[in-house]
Amino acid sequence: MTYKNDIRVVMTLDAGGTNLVFNAVQAEQEILEPITLSSHSDHLEEVLNKIIDGFSQVQNKLVPKPVAISFAFPGPADFENGIIGDLQNLPFFKGGVALGPMLREKFNIPVFINNDGDLFAFGEAIAGLLPEINKKLEDAGNPKRYKNLFGATFGTGFGGGIVTRHGLLCGDNSAGGEINRMRNRTFKNWDTEESVSIRGIKREYANNTGLNLASCPEPREIFEIGMGRSKGDQHAAIHAFEAFARDAADALANATTLIDGLVVIGGGLSGAYPLFLPKLVEEMNYPFDTMSGLPLDRMESVAYNLEDDINLASFLKSSSLEIPVPFTDQTVFFDPNKKVGVGISRLGTSRAVSIGAYAYALAKLDG
Fold first, then answer.
1. Parallel, antiparallel, or unpaired for β 149-154 and 111-114?
2. Could you read off the pLDDT of 15-49 as tens digits, one per residue?
């Protein structure tokens, strides 16, 4: 699926905790300079007016009239019907606010709202990691093509989204891909997000250096310490990212077992992949113990680090065998090796969400 030659325009919004960033997308490209408004508001009417104002400014700059509005917004929500639920950071949405119907009434065009993890995954499936890897497989003479993708975002929280060969999987309750609610491997009574997040990195570094959280450096600096580029406890920094990787790997291995596709990682922490990705892939492949004493593969497929040249070359290499069809003189090809790849966002998280929102709107319009 591609929209590179589609002339339709969709207005988009990146709704963050600090800013509301508005734009428009055509042919998988943002076509305006972003319009940024502060997301800080003291009451519901104020934030709703800011959203209307931002889209109005975008609309006024467009020559081709937009065919839809599509954007990510925090949940919980009934995204299918455009209703935003009880948000921790925006308490005046409590009880449910019909944001989508309001915008549809105001602009007289269809409005689509979804989770940022879902739209990130969809953007990477349309124009990011998924088509890139399939092109590399083609160039390598490997007939294998991937059609399923799990998108994970590492940042303030741990988000996820699922793309299948049939499109974006949203779930019946607007709760598909909510990987943050998986059980934490290390701390059994916690959810995974407590470790796979900015606060998880800081907690591990603080615990291993004797610092309190108030004086603990941010993950970007901890990463620089771990890489040996800044002063600090390098061993503790490496440990913090490896602990993060172990818990992320457990959740991603569970997700991959169900989805059986590529994994793409985005979010603010994704840039630290040199410290966590090798350990993450290693842990995804770490076998289970069994009562018989024999190891059992963690997944039916083997995970490969797509950011490592040697791993990537092995992933791209075809291992197909030509086998006979019984009772005939025919043969068919069979690949006994099951592979999944784990890579970093090719678009950048914000752009992937924007393209995902655009593609989601057009897919819905096209039925």
1. unpaired
2. 877 789 999 999 999 999 999 999 888 889 999 99
